[in-house]
Design a protein that fits this description.
This protein is mostly helical. It is built from six helices and three strands. The protein has three domains: 1-38, no CATH class; 41-118, Orthogonal Bundle (Arc Repressor Mutant, subunit A), CATH 1.10.10.10; 130-165. Helix content is 73%, strand content 7%. It has a three-stranded antiparallel β-sheet.
Length: 172
């Protein structure tokens, strides 16, 4: 159900804009997922190889936070990649309980092959629309995500305070 100004919940223009952004992000995910399928893997596998190839070692928790996917989903992919000898787990120096995921030499070689079509696609798109627009979109999406996260946290805090106040009223 779309909550609009007509039924007293939301400005129609805001809803339309946020809906269009959400649809656009889902379209991008769907397109990248199709490319992943053409490579014979899931998009989740591509995402993990992408993160590790660009940024080095991460924990499962960090990967799940970056991509906003459940840790169980990341764990399933990680188990498969360990079995395929594409990644290895290293005990973190900061937290002995956390294990960092790192590409093996085999994994690095596979990553180059797997991600090549993605990088080529991204390069073509960058040439077509320009780095300025890409940077503006990236900054805008990040700002929107941060704002949504902040609002959700504020509502959660507000809800906790309301419950606390209501509980105190019951005991008076």
């Amino acid at each position: 159900m779309v909550l609009t100004k007509k039924n007293g919940f939301m400005n129609e223009e805001t809803e339309a804009g946020l809906g269009a952004i959400s649809a656009g992000v889902h379209k991008l995910d769907g397109l990248y997922s199709k490319l992943a399928q053409k490579q014979g893997v899931s998009y989740g596998v591509v995402q993990i190889f992408y993160i590790l190839s660009l940024h080095g070692a991460f924990t499962q928790k960090q990967i799940s936070e970056i991509w906003q996917v459940p840790k169980q989903t990341v764990n399933s992919v990680i188990k498969k990649l360990i079995a395929d000898k594409h990644i290895t787990l290293i005990v973190s120096k900061e937290d002995k309980r956390g294990k960092k995921i790192r590409l093996t030499p085999l994994g690095k070689a596979y990553t180059k092959k797997l991600l090549k079509p993605f990088f080529e696609l991204n390069e073509s798109v960058g040439n077509r629309i320009g780095i300025n627009l890409i940077n503006q979109l990236s900054k805008g999406i990040k700002t929107l995500g941060d704002a949504i996260e902040m609002e959700m946290e504020l509502k959660e805090i507000s809800s906790k305070w309301e419950k606390k106040i209501n509980n105190e009223k019951k005991w008076r």
